[in-house]
Amino acid sequence: MAKTFLIVDDSASMRQLVSFTIKEAGFDVLVAENGKDALGKLGGAKIDMVVTDLNMPEMDGIELIKQLRGMPAYKFVPIVMLTTESQETKKTEGKQAGASGWIVKPFSPEQLLDVVKKFVK
Amino acid sequence: MIDLKEKTRIAGILLLAAAPALFSSGTLRFTAFLICFSTAFLLAAAGIKKYRASLERTCEEEREQHIKALDSIVQPVTHHLDANVQIIPVLTTQLQEVTQQTEQAALEMGEKFMGIISRARKQSENASGALSSLGATGGDASLINVTRNTFAEVMTSLETLGEAAVQTQKDMGLITQDATSIKKIVDEIEYIAQQTNLLALNAAIEAARAGESGRGFSVVADEVRKLSDRSNTAADKIKKLITKIESDMSTMYQKTEQSTAANTAKSMDAGRAVSEALSALDSVMCDAKNRLDGLKSETEILAKDISSIIVSMQFQDITRQRIEHVIEPLLKFKLESEALLQQISSLSRTIHEHNHELAASWLEQLYTMESEREVMKNALLAANSK
Questions:
Q1: Is A113 on the interface with B (CB under 8 A)?
Q2: Helices B143-210 & B215-366, crossing angle to 10 degrees?
Q3: Hey, is the C-beta of B315 within 8 angstroms of any chain A C-beta?
Q4: What is the CA radius of gyration of chain B?
Q5: What is the model's pLDDT at position B191?
Q6: Phi and psi, residue A101, nearest 5°
Q7: Which of A69, A99, B8, B222 would give a disulfide with A94, using CB separation of 3.0 to 4.6 Å?
Q8: CA dist., res. B338 & res. B275, Å (int)
Q9: How far is A64 from chain B (nearest CA, A)?
Q10: CA dihedral over B106, B110, B113, B119, signed as positive or negative
Q11: What is the pTM of this model?
Q12: Is there a cis peptide before residue B20, judged by omega within 30 degrees of 0?
């Protein structure tokens, strides 16, 4: 059974890019538009990794990471943040909230897969 | 400036003040003084009140002028600010529409580019699979190798058949030789039979010469002659059969030789043709493999190019976030401007109200009757509420 990724981004084009790259690598994906949407769609389902944007309406990436880390089912799931160069503070906040790593935008599909494969074999 | 009427009033007061001096009697002078003083006091009080009213009117006019001047500054500013505040939602809406449109465009472009990558990879895989099954990749199960191996087996079988035919020919030669040997033995048998027949004849002659005592021997000699005849007949039949076998063998040998030669030649031709065909196919497959490798390489380059495009397309997301960062302060500026407008408007209203309150108190001082004051207050309230 293929491993499942949760992809959270308010930008439809970014969701499309990340989903396509992950699916091409042979994984399954679950997509959400923001943190609140992600928690609603998860509903306790098993996931193997999370790729999330930080700036999102309703519930941002930092809050989502905090919420996930508070749930036993997702306490140790790898979480990778999508950040920009100008988001150093957010990156630090994300790491403190429990993020496992980050990718700086813009990134190539190969760079994304390199980071993903560090966490999921 | 003091007008003529006021000058006359002052002169009158001065005259009244000097009037008691005209009377010589102390009582009359005092009485005149009281009358003149009272009259002068009343005239002076009326003059002072009028002068005060004049001063207050002047102040009121000046205040009105200042308020008008203030209004002339504040109103364009508030109007300009209000106009700008009205533009902000339009601008933010336009910016949001731009981000939505660019995002939609990026989405469509991304979908198309990813479709191109998928199709290119699929085509490359299909071509690779087709050539692999035909043998371009050199696997044992490839069609060309299966054909080549089967052909090799057929050639081996043909060679085995050829060798068997040659062996058969050799065996036929041996049989012919054996037949010749048998014929020699049969000749020996014929010779023995002839000699036996001769011996039987001699024995019969000797038996006849012996007379009665040789009669039994004569019977034996006759039987020996008969056996000799039968041996001769049998040898003759054997000889004929062997001759026929020799003839048949010779015919068979020739036919087998011709057939083997023809088969060998055909097998060699077929082997050569198939080998050439396989070599040609190998060459075609090698060419196709090279082309396929080129196609794969091109596909990878295409995928990398599209990856670069996808990287560039992420600037849309970054731009969107930047625009959102512009929209946020714009909306904040709008809220702050609206609050400022309210403050200015409130201040302006307060100034006007205060002005009217001052005017009311001034009017109260002017009007002595309560009903007049009430009418004036209502008029001012109605003016304020407009």
A1: no
A2: 170
A3: yes
A4: 75
A5: 92
A6: -170, -175
A7: A99
A8: 92
A9: 19
A10: negative
A11: 0.58
A12: no
